[in-house]
């Protein structure tokens, strides 16, 4: 099933030209006379014109010819045609940031990963055989409440354990005081490699989330998909506002 939603940039092939379009509404399916008809609105990037689109699954040859990539640049055969049905489910928008970047979350700017850690008020060790949520007074406070589900790096002998202080860290942010349920919801998510609980199928209701693998200078930030985008493709930034959740 083709993934297609608000903010996507796709190409319409018309009259021997490829026009870049930006979806401003997500495709919605209607049933008309036993046929599935998909409708949405998009902005023609070259002209700024707002265009209504419509594709009938039973008559694709009558609808617009859409592609993921510009046929002029990659060739018609490699442009990846886009045909319904479309997958329009909302998914997190995930960006890579430096651990030293300013990150704007729920209206507050955290000055890098170290500042996020100073605001942690609840934590849970995911490796514990009987996981429990610990609450404490954070070093710094603001209008955003931060929790951390963490897992220590594996160790293989006593000397290794004495010298290893790294951990895999998943941070959850809320505009209201954190609850044990918030922490357990994150803990109960099936992690991927290195205990990363932030994936493309993370429910939007859990966002925003931040993940750090425990080493290096890169972290992952997952935020809610924008209902509208004002930047072009490839212009993601870490200092972007994230709408309040809950």
Keyword list:
17 strands; 10% helix; disordered C terminus; mainly beta; 7-stranded mixed sheet
Summarize the structure.
The chain contains 4 helices and 17 strands. The protein has helices at 71-74, 112-118, 158-163, 180-187, and strands at 2-3, 9-14, 17-23, 28-32, 35-44, 50-56, 65-67, 86-87, 93-98, 102-105, 108-111, 120-125, 134-135, 145-152, 167-174, 209-212, 218-223.
What is this structure's SSE topology?
Layout: E1 2-3, E2 9-14, E3 17-23, E4 28-32, E5 35-44, E6 50-56, E7 65-67, H1 71-74, E8 86-87, E9 93-98, E10 102-105, E11 108-111, H2 112-118, E12 120-125, E13 134-135, E14 145-152, H3 158-163, E15 167-174, H4 180-187, E16 209-212, E17 218-223
Parallel strand pairs: 1-8, 12-14
Antiparallel strand pairs: 2-3, 2-7, 3-5, 4-5, 5-6, 9-17, 10-11, 12-13, 14-15, 15-16, 16-17
